[in-house]
Predict the 3D structure of the following.
Amino acid sequence: MQNNFYIYNSLTRTRELFEPLHPPFTGLYVCGPTVYSDAHLGHARPAVTFDLLFRYLSHLGYKVRYVRNITDVGHLEDDSDDGEDKIGKKARLEHLEPMELVQKYMNNFLKNMEQLNTLPPSIEPRASGHIIEQVEMIKKIISAGYAYEVNGSVYFDVPKYNEKFNYGKLSGRVLEELQQNTRSLEGSSEKRSPWDFALWKKATPGHIMKWPAPWSTGFPGWHLECSAMSTKYLGEVFDIHGGGIDLQFPHHECEIAQSTAALGKESVRYWIHNNLITINGQKMARSLGNFITLDRLFSGDHPLLQQAYSPMTIRFFILQAHYRSTVDFSNEALSAAGKGLRRLMKAVAGLGNLKASGDSTLDVAAIRKGFYEAMNDDLNTPLLLSRLFDSIKYINSINEGTDRISSSDLETFRSLFGTFVFGILGLKDETAGRDDEKLTSDLMKIIIDLRQDARSKKEWEVSDHIREELKKSGIILNDTKEGMTWNRE
Ligand code: ZN
């Protein structure tokens, strides 16, 4: 199974065999969030996509070291080398210490990631904890001749780099094109060329987050942290680097340039980018009023939302599309995803109740092959889901007696279905626990009403008996001003 796993290699724009990976170990680096506001719908897609890849590679037998960074420093507004640090600005607005702000939003992000049932990465390094590694990498780039210092700031020399290497190979942009599209240098700029980018910036007097370095007290450029941290935790050359397609340029292009300049070779074997989520056909942006945080999506508290959508509905919605296609969010699409999820969970329950008899009339090996083929075809989750739904019809035909399944095949079928639905797609049945809770609360309401009725008729023996028996089951009744309430011991 390991040798026929395909992945999209956007460096060569061809599908490549996954053979260059080094079983049983592989390194996966994914660009994580800049934590200065609540996690939103845009964070959910890369999280689910790379969780899927992490789960599938692990399932295939790879020991995966999955590194996802937390950007908590040096990320300037508009992702340019100018303007105010986003975290510093927000910290001022919220009257928080920058690290307090970072912690607050990192906690929110991690809570949402758990709700989406994404597995925690192996390492979640923070940029602020790796300033030394970033400074060391700048020193290497300067001594290799691809960076220069101006007034305490250090810039990467893109034209110089491009003489020997190819800047723009990942995004397909060429330097001339870049030149046309980049606004010309203002007289005050320290950069030699408009496409040069900052490796280190000297802090202006009001800048809060800054560190001492040989060039000035300042802070690293945004692109640098990923080069420094991926090298530290995955080595100079590693297998897979992922992120959203919006990071392909300039972020990943700059990462390639930095690592190549510092190490003399390319670090990443495969790049994998997920496409973006649009909302009713529009790009998501705060200015368009269609910016939906995950908390609001899960609670339904947003003018664009007709109802709350559960974390698994969002996960299913994302998995219904191929990760390289765009996905358009709408209430219709999400409620359809909710229906699909319920149908799948019903099938799992149906599979649990299925009875084996005699020899099989269905080919479980062929079903298994179909599931793996879908995943091996560049993580084709829409195809996998349609094959999972196709196999549901067997559950019905076995129940109706038109098909039969042997007990060993039934065991294989159940474990196969469970592996793909829960283990690889990472879905879970959200209704199971909720149904029990609802039933308990409905029953308690009936019991409390009966007890009140007994009390009003002064049937103290009955009301005491109910209280004592409930206590034995760990339920405590409380008389409050608002009436009778209950809680578990
Ligand atoms: Zn990055």
Summary: Confidence is low (pLDDT under 50) at residues 1-19.
